[in-house]
Design brief:
single chain; 518 residues; Hypothetical protein af1432; GMP Synthetase, Chain A, domain 3; 3 domains
């Protein structure tokens, strides 16, 4: 850091010297031209020449003062930017030093820092030599500038300053990038692990049917009614299919819409308990059940807002959050999933010194489109972003919702945090469940994708479909081609399959040499 500071002050000193020298040269150049012009005009009109000379000197002085002020302002602005960057680098370095103090490999880090110090000394020496070359080049340019006009001199000066600033910025960016690469992976692992450790939400798998126990078989006939009137009325009002079969003491309600199924379940249980099952009573009970479920949705949404300490949400968004209680995705309750994503995003935001409340808001609303996708067409991320925009959410929240499945370009760190938290919540063990048929089909599709490439001998999907190992024929696939094959298989899996988390692709190329001793 001391080397950076010395470099900065040396550059500032050189800029100041160049500014003074250029100013003096510019003044002398203009004065020389003004005197020649004045001497030429004296022969024509002495009085007019003196007037013109005084006006030229006044304009020149004003222009020089204006230019000097602009250069000083620009110099001051760049100096402030450099100081701000230096403070940020110093703060970051201090933070890393504090964290590194608790690690067991202090000695290794010290040796590493010593090697970096030697490297920096070499870099500083090279920069010093480069600076000497630049000074010599500037001197040559100054000699050439003496024969230029004011506008040409300005253009030359601006080009020099711009080139020097870009060089310094590129060096700083390169150093920061190299340092960030060394720290990024370790910091990311720590942040994710801490976020997962601080989050624990239970998951409940739901299906598309509800089973209702009945006290006796006689109830089935009353539910069906004369000529099936009661069951048709119930199905029309609720939008749910009532299945009455030979299963003893039970009936089944089937529907893909969990809210309709919950309304039907509640209404059917009350009809069975009441005993009066006819068309008028069915209409009354279903209406009351709808009203009660609506209240449950609003109470759930408001309770979630209180639980997470969020405010300023539109009432319609609160209602949509409540509807998520009755939605599932891959067997995972969407409201519980959204809460988990909000907690994970908030925890990671705290580790990154970002706003945890904003990250929590993005995480909680990221799947809001699933509460309305029955009434809208399109992917749930786009639907959710449109709803958030409609009800006045911040642009950062809207983008985080739209970008959490990489369908649009993220514009803030909160979009990356939301996507990462969503992947963690969906991919962790036990979070989601697939049917046996879906599970087998996914494994089969993975293996089929691998077999579609030339040179693949065998392919095995392992670890519940989270890894696929591909055996290739060594005489057809080289080592370099094996790496390219792994990338191609990964890209095709991303394009053709939908899956939570990530799938690891391992390409194995083996050559065996066999001989026999006789």
């Amino acid at each position: 850091m001391f080397f950076y500071t010395g470099q900065y002050f040396l550059i500032l000193l050189l800029i100041g010297i160049l500014e003074i020298v250029l100013g003096v040269i510019l003044i002398r150049l203009v004065l020389r031209q003004a005197r020649k012009k004045a001497q030429k005009i004296v022969s024509e009109a002495q009085a007019a020449a003196q007037n013109i000379e005084s006006q030229a000197e006044a304009r020149l002085a004003a222009e020089i003062a204006k230019e000097r002020k602009r250069l000083q302002d620009e110099f001051q602005e760049r100096r402030q930017e450099l100081e701000k960057l230096e403070r940020r680098l110093r703060e970051r370095e201090n933070t890393l030093n504090i964290k590194d103090s608790n690690l067991s490999h202090k000695e290794f880090e010290l040796l590493k820092q010593q090697r970096e110090l030697i490297t920096k000394e070499k870099v500083l020496k090279a920069k010093t030599e480069r600076l000497d070359q630049l000074i010599a080049a500037q001197n040559e340019r100054l000699e050439r500038i003496a024969n230029l006009s004011i506008e040409e001199a300005k253009k030359e000066l601006f080009q020099n300053i711009e080139a020097q600033t870009r060089l310094e910025a590129s060096q700083i960016i390169h150093e920061i990038r190299e340092k960030a690469k060394r720290e990024a992976e370790r910091e990311a692992k720590n942040i994710i692990l801490q976020a997962i450790q601080r989050c624990a939400i239970s998951q409940v798998a739901e299906t598309t049917v509800s089973v209702i126990n009945i006290p006796s078989e006689d109830i089935k006939g009353r539910i069906i009614g004369r000529e099936g009137r009661n069951i048709r009325t119930f199905e029309t009002l609720t939008g749910v299919e009532v299945i009455i079969d030979d299963t003893p003491n039970a009936i089944v309600l089937s529907a893909f819409d969990p809210i309709r199924r919950e309304i039907a379940r509640l209404a059917m249980e009350r009809l069975i308990a009441d005993g009066r099952i006819h068309q008028t009573r069915i209409e009354e009970i279903v209406a009351k059940a709808k009203e009660e479920i609506e209240n449950v949705i609003i109470e759930t949404g408001e309770g979630t807002m209180v639980e997470f300490g969020l405010s300023g949400l539109h009432p319609e968004l609160i209602k949509l959050i409540g509807r998520l209680k009755f939605r599932t995705s891959y067997g995972q309750n969407v409201l519980l999933h959204s809460k988990e994503v909000a907690i994970l995003a908030s925890n990671m935001a705290q580790e990154l010194n970002l706003d945890p409340a904003l990250a929590k808001r993005c995480g909680l609303l990221h799947d809001i489109g699933k509460a309305a996708d029955i009434h809208y067409e399109g992917p749930h991320a786009r639907i959710g972003a449109e709803l958030a925009q409609k009800y006045g959410e911040d642009e950062v929240v809207i983008n985080a919702i739209a970008a959490h499945h990489e369908e649009v370009v993220p514009i803030s760190p909160y979009a990356f945090l939301t996507a990462a938290a969503d992947a963690i919540s969906g991919a962790r063990a036990g979070a989601r469940s697939d049917s046996y048929e879906t599970y087998i089909n996914r494994l089969r599709e993975l293996e089929n994708i691998a077999h579609s490439f030339a040179g693949v001998e065998k392919a095995y999907a392992i670890q519940a479909g989270r890894e696929i190992r591909v055996m290739v024929e060594p005489e057809k696939i080289s080592d370099l081609e094996a790496e390219e094959l792994a990338r191609k298989i990964s890209r095709q899996i991303q394009q053709e399959l939908k899956y939570p988390g990530q799938i690891k692709v391992v390409v194995i190329r083996e050559v065996r040499a066999v001989d026999y001793a006789r």
